[in-house]
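Researcher: Let's try something more involved. This one mixes different molecule types, so please make sure each is placed in the same coordinate frame as the others.
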Amino acid sequence: MSRQQERPDEQSETLTFEQASWVDPDGDRYEPLLSEKGSETVEVDSELPDDLTRDSLELPNPSEPELARHYTRLSEMNYGVESGPFPLGSCTMKYNPKFTEDLAARADASIHPDRSERSTQGTLGLLHELQTYLGDIGGMDAVTLQPPAGAAGEFTGILVAKSYHEANGDERSEVIIPESAHGTNFATAAMAGYDVVSLPSNEAGRVDTEALEAALSEETAALMLTNPNTLGLFERDIEEIAEMVHDVGGILYYDGANLNALLGRARPGDMGFDVMHYNVHKTFATPHGGGGPGAGPVGVTEELREFLPDPHVRATDTGYETHTPDNSIGKVHGYDGNWLVLLKAHAYITRLGDAGLADASAKAVLNANYLAEQIDYEIPFGPFHHEFVASAGEQDAADAAKRMLDFGVHPPTTKWPEIVPEALMTEPTEIESKRTLDQLAAAFNAASASDTDTIEHAPSRTAAGRIDQTSAARNPRLSWQALDDEE
Amino acid sequence: MSGSPYAPHTASETTAMLDAIGVDSEEALFDIPESVRFDGEFGIDAKSEQAARRAVASTLADNDDLTEFLGRGHYDHYVPSVVDHLADRSEFITSYTQYQPEVAQGFLQALFEYQSMLVELTGLEVANCSMYDAATALGEAATLAERLRSISGTRVLVPDLLHEGRRGVLDNYVAGSDLTVETYPTADGNVDREALTEQVDETTAMVYAENPTVRGTIEEGLDTVGDLADEHDALFTLGTDIVALALLEEPASVGADVVVGDGSALGLGSAYGFGLGLFACRGDRELLRQVPGRLVGASEDSDDRRAYTLTLQTREQHIRRERATSNICSNQAWVALRTAMHVASLGPDGLVELANDSVRRARETAGRLDELTGVQAPVHDRHHFREFVARVDQPAEAIAADLEAEGYAVHAVGDHEIQVCVTEANEQALDGFVAAVSEVVR
Amino acid sequence: MSFDIDTDCRYLESHEWVRPDGDTARIGITDFAQDELGDVVFVELPSEGDDVTRDAEFGVVESIKAVSDLYAPVSGEVVAVNERLFDEPELVNDDPFGDGWMLEVAYEESDFDGLLTAKEYRDQTE
Ligand SMILES: Cc1ncc(COP(=O)(O)O)c(C=O)c1O
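Model: All components are placed in one shared frame. Result:
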């Protein structure tokens, strides 16, 4: 059985999109669980003494053809960037070039992390090149590639700030974060042992410098900012902000989630940021993989270089080597991070070069502004760059998003940042054509024109209908064993 | 000037779009003060796909072609082609976190199945759908211990032989908490239970042990460690890997409260340390609310049909912010997908056989090396899994370097100790390897 | 929209109610609060024998998308906990002043000073 998408407007040339689903004869499940397709229990027999081994193991045992069908069917019930537009704000859902996958699949890319430096000059060379590229792109003096995601990059950066203060004999207790920031910023500061001081925005949706002045003190370890911020607005006072933070001896941290707005036009390092992370699974087109893996390299100024994680790659007269920076914070990943992701980011940057990177940002900003022009929802803050935050107004943003699913597009991020009521945070990225943006706008507008009853009951054309979140949370069933227990 | 090859705009479309917006250039859309504008260059020349591919590949080719006998917590098992092909389906790899479950049922179900496999393998009730790697999963376990009301102390006890990467990450994860990390001694590779008994008391928050250990030995009597932790209201966290779980004592049956470790031993090759962190724990109410990371749960859709969704999200950073159980957001979902595929492709028979082979290969290889003059193997009088430590008369660094010249990589783990790991990925090279060792140890 | 208010209760601005009954008092959250939260999926409460302190956090109530701290309207020892809420958190939505109660606390009369009356609370929510 397959469900077909409704057209937002029969007149417009909208994609029709089919999302497959399979229903069992009893009508109550889609593609059966692997366990339902057949499991087997084996008695564990071994040369080891019995008391060192388990007794038995029960797992599914599909044949290879069955396995292939299972996952193919599952994939057909999943929406990716290649299924259609994916304007999920703050996530930078770009097309992921195929050739980067081919490079990651090479045998010489799959080596063990404990090999000697002399036998891994290729890997070290690519890592070093990527460090250099990212340093140049962000205006940073030194870059570590170890953090395995953006949040891990934040943690690394805040630990660097902490070590820097400690090296100055300075115990500080607070990290300042704008209210509109991403949840990871707050969680990271807490993980590093800091109290969070939350900073309100001003009426223009930017950092309120008076409130910042009031929040800053000798206790300020760092201010974490995104620029453009989560509303897509450039913090025009950034130099003044940097000066204010530096005046109290604090570190200015840049959350690189929104770097796709600035490539080749402005660099965090030039704005006065001391530490930044890059989200390569956003800006540099590595696939999000259904929630990861990403990579969150961290760049720092010269002054902070000595605190970078261990090991750090550097060039020698004859090649590359790793070393432990003098005052290293130590490790943030068991080895050297998400190498294959870094490799794909390197390949992407190599392919685009200066011109391609600058054009990616130009088109990302063009697309966001063009799309914004076409949609009926109000957009309270501007001028925005690669993303904008519309308000669903009287509608519940989450419901409006569900309605958009009926038109075969992925909806924007909803209900964040909270400064916009019923937020629809929208980031089309540079990969969409004018035609696709028109179709996407038609989906927005059709959702906007839908009545409450319709959006509350949406979606109706997807593999699954609206899913009951309350039941999932009240009665957690987190494994097929839990489902069996229920029966 | 060429543009991004992945931006589809023609010049006339760009003009039409600018007209619609009401500006005359792309530059006019950037609200960036002049003083922070960048007008320099990165100096990276754009390349055709073919040239870019060649450039990266030619640098990669500077890696020597070695046969690796390396492990110590990160393993290379043969990954069937079917895993690569299925996991690379673009609907999977190009999708995002499942914030819209109605169009993400496929990935959610695959992650639910992954969680279920871990529940079976660990005997614990709950598994999340990934941490970055084994080291960060261990760090998360420690901070979990601190959050639990039923756990009293602040000392985290880890074996003296803990892998340096895991220890380093753990130290950083506890840096913002009241926890301190201490080591307890090992005896002949395994937990020194007497010494540990002396060290565990009411001030202990967590006891961590590994099976197999970083030196490849298989633990005996982990249940006493479980009892010890239990008596003193400490969390017992067990580190392991996805293959070992199929054979060694079930973590739940030795009293483990939490299981962490490496999942990428299946599903991903060596990948230079790129991994997958396992995280499973008991399912009681207190723990469930404190689990870090993402959880997929079953629910029903509007037609009352079974459906899957991310759940218990109030634990996570996007809702609970500074009081979240962890800052993790992007994780290793796609690696978890691969690992689940690999487990399913092996089935229970194949997985147990692979685990049994890991015991046999370590034993046989140690036996062969032990016959050589200048080598005693294994150093530890224990059962081994995949790998073992061997004593060499010559300095270990020199042996490792000489072996590398012969095309083989091993760990030098002590002045006169090398460590050797054997899987189906390098087994075919074993004769040559043993011959090379016999040459270089003399 | 109008919300139920129990005139036998006194209130905190943060939407907890307390209803005296002999030496003990019951504590819960208001109809207004449960409506703001949406479907309650989890309630975390102290154990019997624990002490709670006026205006201090004593637990957490969670819906799908929000987490709220619970503040104690009075100080005292917890003498009973509504354990039904652990399996049936929906009682907080269905009957916030009745079966959805949370704690029973041995309190001091003087604790009621400064708590909102039903009328004051109603004025606050309107
Ligand atoms: C603004 C912002 N900061 C930080 C992050 C965290 O990045 P990651 O998911 O890679 O940990 C995100 C991504 O979701 C983000 O949008």
